[in-house]
């Protein structure tokens, strides 16, 4: 699929939509932000900064200048770090109640949220970007 991603390049399925590179950068950034939140709750620090604006972050990203291979590699490394962090938490930490913004969830659900978010975006890439291959 790497060859296909390279052929699609910086195409988008509609005006104003992110390129695949920007989607991957968004996934990397978003996972890091949620891991920061998880560690703050795990260590009972509890101070969570205000929500981030993904549109501003996407606009100010230089992801379109980064080779897709590099973004994929970074995404894998970030995911490995996330897995190691969650493996380090004991059951008491995983069950910690996390309250922020309008949400409340156990800490382990942050890991599920990270995974579901990535699955959602990879599905969008498959359904909306892969058809751009060859066009």
Describe this protein with a few key phrases.
Four Helix Bundle (Hemerythrin (Met), subunit A), 135 residues
Secondary structure layout:
Elements: H1 2-8, H2 20-42, H3 54-59, H4 68-88, H5 91-94, E1 97-100, E2 103-106, H6 107-129
Antiparallel strand pairs: 1-2
Q: How many DSSP helices?
A: 6
- CATH superfamily label: dinb family like domain
CATH architecture title: Up-down Bundle
- The mean pLDDT is 93
Main sheet strand line-up:
1-2
Q: Radius of gyration in whole Å, from Cα?
A: 16 Å
Which of globular, elongated, flat, extended, rod-shaped describes the shape?
Answer: elongated
The CATH class is identified as Mainly Alpha
What multimeric state do the chains show?
Answer: single chain
Structural class: mainly alpha
Could you please say which CATH topology applies here? Four Helix Bundle (Hemerythrin (Met), subunit A)
Series of secondary-structure elements, N-terminal to C-terminal: HHHHHEEH
| Strand portion | 5-15%
- List the domain count as a whole number: 1
Span between termini: 16 Å
Number of strands: 2
* Helix fraction by DSSP (H/I, runs of at least 4): 55-70%
Low-pLDDT residue intervals, each spanning 5 or more residues: none
Task: Characterize the main sheet.
Answer: 2 strands, antiparallel
Short description:
The chain is mainly α and 135 residues long. The protein is built from six helices and two strands; from the N terminus they run H-H-H-H-H-E-E-H.
